[in-house]
């Protein structure tokens, strides 16, 4: 039995603080739980009238079934003691919906500590507080004070939401979409039970085929990522992360704070195998598409699209291409088959425009589905009295041979008939061309995530076996002596030791040494102040570029001395190219991460970055560049230099492993890391130790 079984699969339930007064939480919960097929005992110490027990102990003594779950409808101030009473009577799990804990200020924090201590002392599992509850429709278990949950039907989508309100919103939208819910939970404040444990429970939850995850904050990044990796090995997960903008003040009054970086959280989840969406509408579309079906792992699955109308088909195809999804041209054999079934007035190479569906439609579906380049089939059309798209797909024999997503639009009554027909045949159906496209993208993103995970596991196994094909993950970085100040020169010496190219340079204590350096290195050179306390030298005039003569060197020297320079770096100027920023840092939530972006002084403004957790394999490291909006600058734009992805992957891995091996380093940043015709060169570097970061 999973340690959350008592919560989601209780033999019996006790409602503590039950009430007969309409409008009270205790009355709403008792009414909602009335459909539960086993014992629901009601407890109210001030109203023991025969229908309610005076205590949890009395309820347990009178019940034939074990009371595994307690639903607490009591004030925050007495919740801690109520939990202890429940645990003493054998209750194993509890739901606390009430507010008034740490989000209420200092007094609430004291009450919350009492609750935490009760959980720690007794071992009782706690969901909440600050949540509207959970529901498991196939068990007729609805521990929610929202009346509408009684209408929720059984389905295949599990909703794991930070917010009880969002849990219900998604459940109701999934009901409208004809998908239904297998389990829905609002984590709330998450004092005890958090999303990672629920995801772990869902791995073996038979009714759940796909998971919708909503996050507002992450308490334990590694635990969350580990849970996502384990779950997505067998079931797809779609994630919606809140926090793109600063709404932390509102969040603080809700259940906590938006304590994580939105970009880092999304990137880490994607790397762990999740499909990402931007809002709740896309979340519903994605899990609808993934309900009951999944593509095999693939780096680039192909979509076959059949449309009854060219205009909507163009919308779908355009959206797929924008998302980087392949819509491959069908084989000559497939096109020949289709040409024998359609008049020569429509496009038939993919997308296949059938015009108004008619006789032979099922054979068109079969031809596209069987094409060797098609891994996923989409069929779209307006409702027609002469054609039932789901039925035609069934007649084609394609159902079961590959994932299929149906798109239908028309009058509500017609769409509902098609939805029922599709449901009966086990086919997911989505309305709207753009919505259909987003569902297809979710299926493709899941296939790519599986492929990347499998590739990572293969690389990891090879590295552990000492294979020569282990890739960059096999690179080892020894522990370093990190004591003392880290100026630019020492930071670059670290990069040199890691095999990362840096320009020739000399440390100079005075003007005479600088002139000797100019003569030895040859013009042009860069002249910089050297000071471990100055992280952004450009901001104070601490960098002079393109120095070609003793006269210009003297001018630069005078300027540097005027801003307080005591020591100087004279360095060969690098070839022109594209500037990147590459950083390895310890994220407070997820641990070591790598950040790659467009570099130079505009890096923070443009915020064009790719983020990965460490360790990572060569394929994942190399792909970071292709995630940047400015990626075309790295592919020979206007005869510029072309990035060697394997060279980048090696640098990323070395920096990441340096962070993993040396706990005392908080951050290593190369900015800029210049892409030149000769390769990548680190022009500036910063190392920040944990002691310095404090």
CATH topology of the largest domain: Rossmann fold
User: Helical segment tally?
Assistant: 24
Low-confidence stretches: 250-259, 467-475
User: So, the CATH homologous superfamily of the largest domain?
Assistant: Succinyl-CoA synthetase domains
The number of distinct β-strands equals: 27
CATH architecture of the largest domain: 3-Layer(aba) Sandwich
Q: Tell me about the biggest sheet?
A: 7 strands, mixed
Radius of gyration: 31 Å
CATH C-level category of the largest domain: Alpha Beta
Structural class: alpha/beta
Helix content: 25-40%
In total, the number of domains comes to 5
**Share in β-strands:** 15-25%
Judging from the principal axes of the Cα atoms, what is the shape?
A: flat
How far apart are the termini? 44 Å
Query: Mean of the pLDDT scores?
Result: 91
What does this molecule look like?
The chain has 24 helices and 27 strands. It has 5 domains: 1-129, 3-Layer(aba) Sandwich (Rossmann fold); 130-292, Succinyl-CoA synthetase domains (Rossmann fold), CATH 3.40.50.261; 303-448, Succinyl-CoA synthetase domains (Rossmann fold, 3-Layer(aba) Sandwich); 504-572, Dna Ligase, domain 1; 578-693, ATP-grasp fold, B domain (D-amino Acid Aminotransferase, Chain A, domain 1), CATH 3.30.470.20. β1, α2 and β2 form a beta-alpha-beta unit. By secondary structure, it is of the alpha/beta class. Helices cover 37% and strands 20% of the residues. It has a 7-stranded mixed beta sheet with strand order 7-6-9-8-10-11-12, with helices on both faces. Strands 22, 23, 24, 25, 26 and 27 form a 6-stranded antiparallel beta sheet that branches. The chain has a 5-stranded parallel beta sheet with strand order 2-1-3-4-5, sandwiched between helices. Mean pLDDT is 91; it is low at 250-259 and 467-475.
């Amino acid at each position: 039995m999973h340690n959350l079984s008592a919560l989601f699969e209780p033999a019996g339930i006790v409602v503590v603080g039950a009430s007969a007064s309409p409008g009270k939480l205790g009355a709403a919960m008792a009414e909602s739980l009335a459909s539960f097929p086993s014992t629901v005992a009601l407890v109210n110490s001030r109203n023991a009238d025969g229908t309610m027990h005076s205590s949890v102990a009395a309820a347990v003594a009178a019940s034939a079934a074990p009371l595994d779950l307690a639903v607490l409808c009591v004030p925050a101030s007495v919740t801690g003691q109520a939990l202890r009473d429940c645990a003493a009577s054998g209750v194993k799990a509890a739901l606390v919906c009430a507010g008034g804990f740490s989000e209420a200020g200092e007094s609430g924090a004291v009450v919350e500590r009492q609750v935490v201590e009760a959980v720690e002392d007794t071992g009782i599992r706690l969901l909440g507080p600050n949540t509207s509850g959970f529901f498991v429709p196939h068990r007729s278990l609805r521990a929610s004070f929202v009346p509408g949950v009684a209408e929720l039907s059984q389905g295949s989508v599990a909703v794991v939401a930070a917010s009880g309100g969002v849990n219900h919103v998604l459940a109701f939208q999934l009901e409208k979409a004809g998908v239904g819910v297998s389990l829905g939970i609002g984590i709330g404040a998450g004092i005890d039970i958090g999303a990672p444990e629920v995801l772990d429970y869902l791995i073996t939850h038979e009714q759940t085929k796909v998971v919708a995850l909503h996050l507002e904050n992450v308490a334990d990044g590694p635990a969350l990522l580990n849970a996502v990796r384990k779950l997505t090995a067998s079931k797809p997960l779609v994630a919606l992360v809140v926090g793109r903008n600063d709404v932390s003040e509102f969040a603080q009054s809700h259940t906590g704070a938006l304590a994580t970086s939105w970009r880092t959280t999304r990137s880490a989840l994607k790397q762990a195998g999740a499909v990402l969406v931007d809002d709740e509408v896309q979340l519903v579309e994605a899990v609808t598409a993934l309900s009951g079906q999944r593509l095999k792992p693939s780096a680039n699955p192909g979509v076959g699209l059949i449309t009854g109308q060219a205009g909507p088909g163009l919308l779908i195809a355009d959206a797929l291409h924008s998302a980087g999804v392949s819509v491959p041209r069908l084989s000559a054999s497939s096109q020949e088959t289709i040409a024998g079934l359609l008049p020569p007035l429509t496009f038939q190479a993919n997308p296949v425009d059938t015009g108004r569906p008619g006789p032979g439609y099922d054979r068109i579906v079969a031809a596209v589905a069987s094409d060797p380049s098609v891994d996923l089939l989409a069929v779209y059309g307006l409702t027609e009295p002469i054609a039932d798209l789901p039925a035609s797909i069934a007649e084609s024999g394609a159902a079961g041979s590959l994932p299929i997503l149906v798109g239908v639009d028309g009058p509500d009554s017609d769409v509902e008939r098609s939805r029922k027909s599709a449901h009966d045949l086990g086919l997911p159906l989505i309305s709207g061309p753009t919505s259909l496209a987003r569902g297809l993208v979710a299926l493709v993103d899941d296939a790519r995530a599986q492929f990347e995970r499998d590739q990572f596991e293969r690389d990891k196994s090879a590295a552990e076996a000492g294979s020569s094909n282990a890739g960059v993950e096999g690179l080892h970085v020894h522990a370093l002596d990190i004591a003392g100040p880290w100026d630019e020169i020492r930071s670059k010496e670290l990069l040199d030791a890691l095999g990362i190219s840096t320009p020739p340079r000399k440390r100079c204590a005075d003007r005479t040494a600088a002139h000797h350096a100019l003569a030895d290195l040859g013009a042009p050179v860069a002249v910089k102040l050297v000071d471990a306390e100055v992280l952004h030298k450009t901001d104070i005039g601490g960098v002079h570029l393109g120095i070609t003569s003793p006269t210009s060197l003297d001018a630069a020297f005078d300027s540097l001395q005027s801003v307080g320079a005591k020591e100087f770096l004279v360095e060969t100027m690098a070839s022109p190219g594209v500037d990147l920023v590459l950083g390895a840092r310890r994220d407070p939530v997820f641990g070591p991460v790598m950040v790659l972006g467009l570099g130079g002084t505009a890096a923070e403004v443009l915020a064009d970055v790719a983020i990965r957790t460490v360790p990572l394999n060569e394929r994942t490291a190399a792909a970071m560049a292709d995630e940047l909006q400015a990626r075309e600058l790295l592919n020979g734009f206007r005869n510029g230099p072309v990035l060697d992805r394997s060279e980048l992957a090696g640098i990323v891995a070395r920096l990441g492993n340096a962070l993993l091996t040396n706990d005392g380093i908080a951050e290593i940043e190369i900015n800029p890391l210049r892409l030149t015709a000769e390769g990548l060169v680190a022009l500036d570097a910063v190392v920040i130790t944990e002691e310095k970061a404090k």
